[in-house]
Amino acid sequence: MAERLLMKGNEAVAEAAILAGCIHFFGYPITPQTEVAAYMSKRLPKIEGGVYLQAESEIAAANMVLGASAAGVRAMTSSSSPGISLKTECISYMAGSDIPCLIVNVQRAGPGLGGIQPSQADYWQATRGLGHGGAHALVFAPSSIQEMVDMVFDGFELAEQYRIPAIILSDGLLGQMMEPVIFPERKPKYIDKPWALTGHGFKREHNIVNSLYLEASELEEKNNEREQRYNEIRRLHAVADSYLMEDASVAVVAYGAAARVSGAAIDVLREQGVKAGLIRPVTLWPFPTAAIESAAEQLEQILVVEMSHGQMVEDVRLAVNGKIPVHFYGRNGGILPTQQEIINQLLELTGGVK
Amino acid sequence: MDRFNYLKRVVAITGHYGCGKTNFALNLALHTKNTEQEVVLIDLDIVNPYFITSDFSEMLTAEGVSVINSQYANSLIETPSVSREISAVIRSDRQVIIDVGGDDVGAVALGRFWQDFEAVNGLDVIYLFSIYRPQTGSIEDVRRHVEAIEISSRQKVTGLVNSSNLAGYTTLADIERSEEFSTRLSEYLELPLIATLSIQEISRDNYWHISRFVKLPWE
To answer: Would you kindly state where each structural domain of chain A is located, as residue ranges?
Structure first.
């Protein structure tokens, strides 16, 4: 095998998980995610101890991840939007049981069964609505296949460090498109899991993995402790990437595939002398509020571009806190904003080339 | 000299998904059209509706290539169906290029037409490969893959095309690196290597020059 490979996002995320020490995969087919499961079904049986299981439903697959993770191994599931909705009950249970895991959402357009083309309409779900009870998961938003690979390692490691689920928020385009990728020679970093159900062997107390606390004071204490972990994550792990921002007077804020199109639009505008830049949230939860807040000091206005009717734009507005205007442009239903559409939006906002 | 001249009137293009079948099929269709024959390109990709021939229907029609797409539209389910026109086209006197879906799974759809192929004296089945794709990186991997495709398509692969590329990031060195593998593969499978593909900008004379039609939205 050549060291630089041409891979689909869906294949690369699967291979990266294996290299990151995850050999337990539970899934269910759905377009445009199916290659993740298909790749795992071919690779994992060849690995000693590897488990690939196509469950009877998304709900079952998510609960198998809960079980495997509770037993202390790295486990993963993947799906696309409607399938993630089915998994959310269990994601809340995992969050409530402080169980780490990795979930890949290859987003397609919704609501409902929606379509099978790419979308970013699951932003709210990923950052706010992963089941009931006020739970969070780390949410990573790759915009290239190489980045997706690197995030798989970070995802497992941070999930285990903080004992929370992690999500790679991909989309149909990132999952299906192909780019060259180099797999890092990075040894997976394993974190001790003294809480895991590995058998007490009469040498220690029973470990219990559970999200049910009937005593209100006990539950409040548990939730407060978890919130402290959330706060530490908010403080330390919010990441944004910036492009041509040094002298920018207008910035696009976009993530994932929308950031790729926006970056190409900004390149064209720069040639025409428009001082445009790009702020790309790399983590969506925690949201890189500070990076956007400080960028707002130098900017005149912001354009948020999403493949939805506008979801992340709310977090951008909260970060900017009214200091400058925050505009929105989006396409939805499975349609990508084009480079030209973004150029037109920015030209309109800036009053053309100055 | 046209290296594709010897091929039968019906040519199917198979291979691992993501090795560049659709881009090659588009190039071959336009090339065949240049020889002033009536060409029909059939999109038999039932595996996945992303980056498929149907995306290029307008361009192909404008260039005089007829296109038959698998039917995702007109349907409320994610299961595409193959068009009933296909048998008639195979049995016609037109040049037919079939873009088959990836892997043995996609090749099943080709097997559905075995009676039509028998009625017209068979077809040529090209197997496209790339050393830069995982799962087809060794000679043994490719042999197993070709076998699986032959079983599910009920057809024999009759020729190889080396499509080793890294999309927009391909260099001449990348293609040169694949040539030793190609030669060994061709000898091992006892199948002719019909062409090594490269885009014009990084071409060498012995390569078959193709255009990159299948691109990312921001390219």
So the answer is: 4-236, 242-350
Question: Is the C-alpha dihedral spanning A69, A97, A122, A235 positive or negative?
Answer: negative
A6 to chain B: which residues are within 8 Å by CB? 18, 130, 132-133, 165-167
Q: Which residues of B touch A116 (CB under 8 A)?
A: 49, 78
Structure tokens at A351: 């009053």
Q: Does domain A4-236 have CATH number 3.40.50.970?
A: yes
Q: Which residues contact A218 (CB under 8 A, 6 or more apart)?
A: none
Question: Measuring CA to CA, how many Å separate A15 from each of A10, A21, A42, A72, A140?
Answer: 9, 10, 11, 21, 17
Question: Could you tell me the pTM of the whole model?
Answer: 0.92
CATH architecture of residue range(s) A242-350: 3-Layer(aba) Sandwich (3.40)
Residue pair B142/B15 in contact by the 8 Å Cβ criterion: no
Tokens of B129: 């490969």
Instruction: Dump pLDDT digits (tens) for A246-296.
Output: 999 999 999 999 999 999 999 999 999 999 999 999 999 999 999 999 999
Sort A95 into a burial class: Cβ within 10 Å, 0-12 / 13-18 / 19+.
Answer: buried
| Other beta carbons less than 10 A from residue A272's beta carbon | 12
Distance from CA of B82 to the nearest CA of A (A): 19
Q: Which residue has the tokens 């939006």?
A: A345
Instruction: Tell me what ipTM this predicted complex has.
Output: 0.84
Task: Find the CB nearest A264 among B48, B135, B218.
Answer: B218
- B138 has a chain A CB within 8 A of its CB: yes
Q: Are B171 and B179 in contact (CB under 8 A)?
A: no
- Residue A264 contacts B where some CB pair is shorter than 8 Å: yes
Assess whether the region A4-236 and the region A242-350 belong to the same CATH fold: yes
